[in-house]
Specification:
mainly beta; about 45% strand; flat
Length: about 50
């Protein structure tokens, strides 16, 4: 495994909820092209941390 295989990817998102002291839910959105129509669609993923 070379050094270029271990590159970390930084994700940016928006804080959706901050209910407790140490927990936060972040919504990460990405644009995906529709396979048939070609229109870009927003796909979202929730991360807790």
């Amino acid at each position: 495994m070379s050094a270029s295989d271990n590159i970390e990817r930084t994700l940016t998102g928006r804080v959706v909820s901050n209910k407790m002291d140490k927990s936060v839910t972040v919504k990460i959105e990405r644009l995906v092209k529709h396979p048939v129509y070609g229109k870009y669609i927003r796909r979202s993923q929730g991360q807790e941390g």
